[in-house]
Specification:
The complex is a heterodimer of chains A (394) and B (261). The longest helix of chain A is centred in the C-terminal third of the chain and has 17 residues, at 377-393. Chain A is an alpha/beta fold. Chain A has a 7-stranded parallel β-sheet, with helices on both faces. Chain A has a 5-stranded parallel β-sheet with strand order 19-18-20-21-22. A 3-stranded antiparallel β-sheet of chain A has the order 12-13-14. Chain A is built from 11 helices and 22 strands. Chain B has helices at residues 36-52, 67-76, 94-107, 128-136, 190-198, 206-209, 244-257, and strands spanning 2-6, 9-11, 17-19, 24-26, 32-34, 55-61, 80-84, 113-117, 140-150, 154-161, 164-171, 174-178, 202-204, 223-229, 238-240. The chains are: A alpha/beta (394), B alpha/beta (261). At the A-B interface, α1, α2, α5, α6 and β11 of A face β3, β4, α3, α4 and β9 of B. β14 (209-215) of chain A pairs antiparallel with β14 (223-229) of chain B, so a sheet runs across the interface. The structure holds flavin-adenine dinucleotide (FAD) and adenosine monophosphate (AMP). Flavin-adenine dinucleotide (FAD) sits between chains A (280-282, 306-309, 320-325, 337-339, 341, 343-344, 347, 357-360, 363, 376-378) and B (13-14, 36, 121).
């Protein structure tokens, strides 16, 4: 059983661990800090300036992982269109594979998608495992997870990367469950450490901290990766091959069925948009979103919202940005009448350029804004729209 | 209908702030609460029960304080509560959490539905739902924004995806993970609160779930946090001054520089 140990000889009673514990499990008792009900998150251990805290875990036997080689990327597709996150996974995958001096492979499932397999090869992929079958046209968790898990058991990649999309986030845990290996969600950084393991970096506690995570005793090391975080792969001379594979229809479990798909009315989803004009409680009324939509469409973007605006019923939940909404990373994020709560920032602070328009000069949104406009959005935005329209009519 | 709702007690995120100088989490006596999306899971369970009858069991894995979270769920209208608690369960990643929850759920006998939140605000992975479904050998549908239909042996659930909504037909028993848009959770009623105070929360530990301690908690977790640090403090931005027209003009020029217009 794991245990947390406080080395009293090293402890200076500074109290940093008390503040650091996100669960409030440490109290500064009369003499030394006391830990109860520890969840072993490790935050106090890494924060302690004296290295006085350690967590003891059962030593796992050293196992031979050398038969696992290479990086495998899941190529998500929908209606034959490859999801844009895939090119970013390939970009990162190639970097990792090069460092390890191991191959980069892609698994692609779908119907009538042979030409996409050829296209993927152009991005420096060594091999595409292609499952081209009418049964696989539409994503379903059951068959996709079994087929990919079986391929992983056969090919033995040491790293598997999957996009943190609604498909990927549902599929990846199923695959990891079959393989009984570790899975790290929503990675924003991936590196190879000195021991050759994959160092997975992700935000934790609502974006309040970043955590580095390792999976040292099982293979493959699996991560889901956020969209628009990694750099897209570049095209290059292709030396790779496509390997067509058959599925065993007989043994395939397939329990769910997609009965219907209704496309969202908005042309671009908030995740894919390059420009996002977001509105908050400061809009004051649902009409405010009409103004924002006007600006967004002039900038070829779409409209986002804070939770407060969604809770007011001014706009649909699918537009919500933040901890309990979507994470976005557009080229330009314009926050209008949004105060900038920790939860909202968690979903947008990695945007390339952030513009904030807010009446209150002390609003926390200004701390992350590249350009801050202290003012009334109903005065500033119409003027901005005028300038943009003028330049377009020229 | 037999419904199981999985809930987690999490630190109240509004209270967790980062001290950018020291790089530590600042907690002003952080209270714990039920994970936000799990409230929607509870509410959906209650709505199904109100329509079709049945029983709702809330289950949580966590330290003894998590009993409070379970009591809150009972006060909303759930019927019974189980807490999976043992020193051996602490430090679990999503594999060990799903393993433990699955063991606990198997002890409860059969079920028609398992409802989870889409993700938690602390773990923030969204992995436990689908993983648990695999451990229990049942299908799952994630990202549910609406249950469109409940038939005799199936449901049709609306899944929110990047570019729209998919209506998914899924046989029962199954597991769903829900989003915020699915409902508005009710507040606990005073009457139920009083009743909940008297109900016994049943506890299960390592002894009850069985197996080796090394399969649970931190020891049973393939992933390990090896370092925690504060994200780069954002650089100081530029404040655009002047009357609205002037501000808009400067902003427009910035957009031009960025080649947005
Ligand atoms: C577990 C949890 C999860 C959450 N998840 C999310 C999430 O995913 N996304 C999210 O956004 N929030 C989330 N929240 C809520 C969050 O804490 C805030 O309540 C919310 O983000 C505030 O929204 P707001 O900025 O629109 O509203 P407010 O905080 O009310 O801010 C409105 C702002 O508008 C400004 N304003 C008013 N009138 C004008 C005007 N005419 N012109 C210019 N400015 C004006 C005001 O100065 C003010 O700063 C979550 C909370 C919790 C506890
Ligand atoms: N310790 C736990 N006890 C009970 N349910 C949990 C626990 N951890 C996660 N869950 C459930 O799984 C969902 C997703 O959690 P996560 O994968 O941590 O983001 C939550 O909304 C809960 O419904």
């Amino acid at each position: 059983m794991p245990d947390i140990i406080m080395n009293k000889a090293k402890c200076t009673k500074c109290g940093i661990c008390v503040d650091a514990c996100p669960f409030g499990c440490i109290v500064l008792a009369d003499i030394y800090p006391e830990i109860s009900d520890c969840r072993f998150c490790g935050i106090c251990m890494v924060r302690c300036p004296e290295n006085a805290i350690s967590i003891s875990v059962e030593e796992k036997p050293i196992i031979d992982l050398s038969s696992y080689k290479g990086v495998m990327v899941f190529a998500e597709q929908k209606f034959g269109k490859i999801s844009p996150v895939v090119y970013e996974l390939i970009g990162k995958g190639r970097e990792l594979a090069k460092q390890l001096n191991e191959p980069l492979e892609v698994v692609l499932l779908g119907n009538k998608i042979r030409n996409y397999a050829e296209e993927i090869l152009q991005y420096g992929v060594d091999k595409v495992h292609l499952y081209n079958n009418p049964l696989l046209g539409v994503f379903r968790d059951d068959p996709y997870s079994q087929i990919i898990a079986n391929l992983i058991i056969e090919v033995k990649p040491s790293i598997v990367l999957i996009g943190a999309t609604s498909i990927g986030r549902s599929l990846a845990p199923r695959i990891a469950a079959i393989l009984k290996t570790g899975l790290t969600a929503d990675c924003t950084g991936l590196e190879i450490n000195e021991d050759g393991h994959l160092l997975q970096i992700r935000p934790a506690f609502g974006g309040n901290v970043m955590a580095k995570i390792l999976c040292t005793h099982t293979r493959p090391q699996m991560s889901t990766v956020r969209y628009k975080v990694m750099k897209k792969a570049e095209m290059q001379q292709s030396k790779g091959i496509v390997e067509e594979r058959e599925i065993e229809v007989k043994n395939l479990i397939d329990r769910t069925k997609v009965e219907e798909f209704r496309k969202a009315k908005d042309k671009v989803s908030i995740i894919e948009a390059d420009v996002l004009v977001s509105g908050g409680k400061g809009l004051g009324n649902p009409e405010g979103f009409k103004l924002l939509k006007g600006l967004a469409s002039l900038l070829n973007g779409t409209v986002g919202a804070s939770r407060s605006a969604v809770d007011e019923g001014w706009i649909d939940y699918s537009h919500q940005v933040g901890l309990s909404g979507r994470t976005v990373r557009p080229k330009l994020y314009i926050a209008c009448g949004i105060s900038g709560s920790v939860q909202h920032l968690a979903g947008m602070q990695t945007s390339e350029v952030i513009v904030a328009i807010n009446k209150d000069p002390n609003a926390p949104i200004f701390k992350v804004a590249t350009y801050g406009v202290v003012g009334d959005l109903y005065e500033v935005i119409p003027e901005l729209i005028k300038f943009v329209k003028e330049s377009k009519s020229k | 209908m037999r419904i199981i709702v999985c809930i987690k007690q999490v630190p109240e995120t509004t209270e967790v702030k980062i001290d950018s100088e020291k790089g530590t989490l600042v907690r002003d006596g952080v209270p714990s609460e039920i994970n936000l999306l799990d409230l929607h899971a509870i509410e959906e369970g209650i709505r199904i029960k109100e329509k079709f009858g049945g029983q709702i069991t809330v289950i949580s894995m966590g330290p003894s304080q998590a009993e409070e979270a379970i009591r809150d769920a009972l006060a909303m209208g759930c019927d019974e509560g189980y807490l999976l608690t043992d020193k051996a369960f602490a430090g679990a990643d999503t594999l060990a959490t799903s393993f433990t929850l699955a063991r606990g759920i198997k002890k409860l006998g059969g079920f028609d539905f398992i409802i989870c939140g889409m993700k938690t605000t602390d773990g923030d992975t969204g992995q436990v739902g689908p993983w648990l479904a695999h451990e229990l050998g049942i299908p799952h549908v994630a990202y549910i924004n609406k249950i469109a239909e409940i038939g005799k042996n199936y449901i049709v659930a609306e899944k929110l995806v990047e570019d729209g909504v998919e209506a998914i037909h899924c046989p029962i028993p199954c597991l769903i993970t829900v989003l915020k848009g699915i409902n508005d959770p009710r507040l606990p009623s005073l009457k139920l609160k009083i009743k909940a105070r008297k109900l016994e929360i049943k506890k299960m530990g390592l002894q009850d779930l069985g197996g080796e301690a090394s399969n649970y908690g931190l020891d049973g977790s393939p992933t390990r946090v090896v370092e925690v640090y504060s994200p780069n403090p954002p650089q100081k931005g530029e404040i655009i001054e002047g009357i609205p027209k002037k501000q808009a003009d400067v902003l427009f020029k910035k957009l031009k520089e960025l080649k947005i217009v």
